[in-house]
Design a protein that fits this description.
20% strand, alpha+beta, 4 helices, elongated, four-stranded antiparallel β-sheet, Tetrahydropterin Synthase, Chain A, 4 strands, 173 residues
């Protein structure tokens, strides 16, 4: 049998110093190439147009907010009564603001009763929605039907309904 002697270099670990030096050298070369390329390409100069057109919105087209109600509205759908401090606002174009404000003044109690009915019949999970999508949709449909459309242009008078509501608090034990 041939005499097998183990190679003395096989069991020894080599120092990682050469590998580290090689990696650092490659990184330095890459950084040098990157910086060189960036210096060769100057950024383009950009000037702002001093004559840029500013779109001016006519006063009649600006949106204004009008308060519909500010009340504590109850919900007793699950057998426990909660009160919600609620504000309902409508956004309309300025040209419709007098017409809408007049309707809000004349029919304040009727509108409040209709919105209160929405609150009383809504599921408790609707009050937990981050943006109150279901309540806003119901109130928007109610107010949109009340205010109608502009007879001349055919566009809806109501631009948007906004509900600002605090978390409900339990009032019965």
């Amino acid at each position: 049998m041939p005499d097998e002697t183990p190679d003395p270099e096989v069991g020894k670990k080599k120092s990682p110093l050469k590998t580290i030096i090689l990696v650092v050298a490659i990184l330095l070369v890459e950084a040098g190439v990157f910086i060189g390329v960036m210096m060769m390409h100057d950024p383009q100069l950009v000037e702002a147009n001093p004559h840029a057109a500013v779109i001016e919105i006519p006063e009649d087209e600006k949106i204004v907010e009008l308060r519909v109600i500010d009340a504590r509205l109850p919900n007793n759908k699950i057998g426990v009564t909660y009160l919600y401090d609620t504000q309902v606002w409508v956004q309309v174009k300025n040209r419709y603001s007098e017409q809408v404000a007049d309707q809000l003044d004349r029919f304040h109690n009727e509108i409040k009763a209709e919105i209160t009915a929405i609150w009383r019949t809504s599921d408790p999970r609707h009050f937990q929605e981050p943006k109150l999508e279901n309540l806003t949709r119901k109130v928007n449909a109610l107010l949109d039907a009340r205010f109608g459309t502009d007879p001349q242009t055919g566009e809806t008078i109501l631009a948007k309904s906004v509900i600002v509501m605090q978390p409900g608090f339990r009032i019965d034990s």
